[in-house]
Every structure is written in structure tokens, then in C-alpha cells.
Amino acid sequence: MSQELLRRLGANIRHLRLTKGLSQERLAELTGLHRTYIGGVERGERNISLLNLARLAHALEASLSELTCGVDK
């Protein structure tokens, strides 16, 4: 179940990133995170911390609830 939650979260982040027209590289620059970390999060391979989730939300001009929408179902 937890892996599925991470995949849903990653899909939300990827969708928002693509909607904003950002590459993983550009999102990494905006957040100060490494590009491979962003990729791992988007694939559901990383258990992201709340602080890094907040960094991503800020860079994507989204709320934390937007990033986590549908993750708990």
C-alpha cells in the first residue's frame, strides 16, 4: 500500500511539473534538489520528506493539498 501512495504522489508532482512546462532539471534548480531525486520521487521510489514536499509545492506554485490530492485513497 505505501508504494502505491508514493506512486500516486509522484504522478501528481509529474503532472503539475509538465503542466507548468518544467523539465526535471529546471524543477531541481528551483528547489535546490538533485534531478535524480526529483525523478525518484516522480517514479514513487523515494519517500519524500515534508520539507522537500513543501519545496516542490512552492516551486510548482501549488499547495501541499494539490500535491497530495487523491494520494490517501
Automatic annotation (TrEMBL):
One of its GO terms (cellular component) is cytosol. SUPFAM superfamilies: lambda repressor-like DNA-binding domains (SSF47413). One of its GO terms (molecular function) is DNA-binding transcription factor activity. It holds the Pfam family HTH_3. It comes from the Bacteria. The keyword Transcription applies. Residues 13-67 form the HTH cro/C1-type domain. This is Subunit S of type I restriction-modification system. InterPro entries: Cro/C1-type_HTH (IPR001387), Lambda_DNA-bd_dom_sf (IPR010982), TransReg_Diox_bact_type (IPR050807). Keywords: DNA-binding, Transcription, Transcription regulation.
